[in-house]
Structure formats: C-alpha cells, structure tokens
Amino acid sequence: MRVVKVLAWLMGAVLLTAASVVAAPQQDQRPYCAGVFQSYALQLRCVHSENAARDRLYRRTGSFNSTVDLETWNYCGGIYDSWSLMERCIASEEIAKRRLGR
After folding, report:
1. By CB neighbour count within 10 A (0-12 exposed, 13-18 middle, 19+ buried), where does 11 fall?
2. What sections of the chain are H helices per DSSP?
3. What band does 5 get if pLDDT is binned at 50, 70 and 90?
4. Looking at residue 69, what is its pLDDT?
5. Which of 19, 68, 77, 82 could be cross-linked to 24 through a Cys-Cys bond (beta carbons 3.0 to 4.6 Å apart)?
6. Where in the sequence is the domain holding 87, given as residue range(s)?
7. Is 84 within a domain?
8. Are the beta carbons of 84 and 47 closer than 8 angstroms?
9. Is 18 inside a domain boundary?
10. Are 32 and 26 in contact (CB under 8 A)?
11. Residue 29's closest CA among 44, 9, 8?
C-alpha cells in the first residue's frame, strides 16, 4: 500500500512538472480555428497559418542553441490558445527584454 501511495505521488509530481514545462497551444488547431471562424475557407487558412507559426517556433526551440527562453515560452503558452498569438507574444517579450537590457 505504501508503494502505491509513493508511486501515485511521484506520478502527480511528474505530471505537474511536465505541464508547467511545456505550456503551449494544442498541436491540432482545427477545433480552435472552427471556434473562431465559421467559414470553412477561413478555417482552412487559419489551420495553415497556425501550423506555420508552430513550425517556426519549433525551429527556433528545437536546436541546442534555443533562442526562446523557457520562462517566456511558458508565459506566452499559458496565455494563448493560438500558435500565431504565442509567436507574437514571444517576439514582443524578446523586444521588451532587449530594451530593458536583459
């Protein structure tokens, strides 16, 4: 019984840590785009632009020399449900940090 409690506690800690580290919009943006746009053509355009924004962000973070710090990623990913809005958020945060000299 004690082992089960310890394992349950560890699983909870791992899940909470993973959720805080990978704050980001959903991979499948079709539900988001369908909720924002009623027209199928606009939904299709939205999905393509969201996928392009996601790919641009992943290219920036996928290398060893990531240009996006984890704090900014989590902040923007926790606020927005859209990859394009998250991309804009990260860009504005980076501009603000440069202006402040950080």
Report:
1. exposed
2. 2-21, 30-36, 40-61, 70-79, 83-100
3. low
4. 85
5. 77
6. 24-100
7. yes
8. no
9. no
10. yes
11. 44
